[in-house]
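Crash report, auto-generated. Payload:
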Amino acid sequence: MKIIFTLVAALWMASAALAVEPREMLKDPALEARARVVSKALRCVVCQNESIDESGAEIAADMRILVRQRIQAGETNAQVIAYMVGRYGDYVLLRPRFTAATVLLWLGPVVVLLLGGLVVARRLKRAGVTPLPLTPDEEAAIATLTDEGGKA
Amino acid sequence: MAEASSDPDRPRRWPFAIPVVVILVLLALFGKRLLDVERGADPSLIPTVLLDTPAPAFDLPPLPGRGEGLSNADLKGRITLINFWGSWCIACLSEHPVLMEIAKTGEVAIQGVAWRDPPEKSLAWLAKHGDPYDKIGQDPNSKTAVDFGVVAAPESFLIDANGVIRYKQPGVLTLDDWRNKVRPLIAQLKK
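Recovered output after restart:
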């Protein structure tokens, strides 16, 4: 079990270590940390669902370096992301923006949940309007239970 | 069960269909979109935000022994087809005869960007397959490719005489694309 865990952990860390190469990294750890944040928000444009931070693709590596150059030149994270969106559109953002085109994506599940909740609420309400009175047997059973509970 | 459904106090069953229908509609929409992207059927699915905006500024060095490099100044004054390619790009090989054909017509200037390609390899490739380009600039670090929002080679842009991007061809420019899209657009821009 330990061996499996170690192997899995090693594999997982290996994949994390693969993408960003040491020669790409900025010397200033604060700037490098920002570059990682920005890179994690940007989609690798040839890999569909991977950030440029994770991707081993060549264009992703070049984009990581461009991100770092811009950060080093004094741009804010938002400015760097805006630069990439200005080239590739919203597509380059891994987290879709809330726009007319994505409203269904963001609100669809909520709408479904609300509709489902509405149906369930209505059903429960109708079913539970008049709870049946307890039968004498049930009354007795509850009495025994509470009495015993009280004695113990 | 039959008499129970006629009981007016019993909740009707149909509201249960609403979430199911909504989920099915959502699934169908998302599924269609995924399949479309997968097929790459509609190039507008990855639209270029740069359409109808001025081409980004760039100034790329030439391939050794092949005259001048390429800069955005070369895009002004005439209609240009700018083509991102590389000797490593298999699809570029299938596109190449089309570019050669277009160059022969002389209807549009073809400018090349040798993207992420060692210059000697670019030159060898051109020597072997022919050279349709007016000028070629080297973009070893993807700086200009990213400025154009290039995703993968080959990719081509039609740029009007004012240096404004008018059309993007993601992927291989086929003879059909040339005849049905690019050429009519050039004719329209020349008016």
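Post-recovery validation: The helical segments of chain A are 2-18, 29-41, 58-72, 77-88, 103-127, 136-151.
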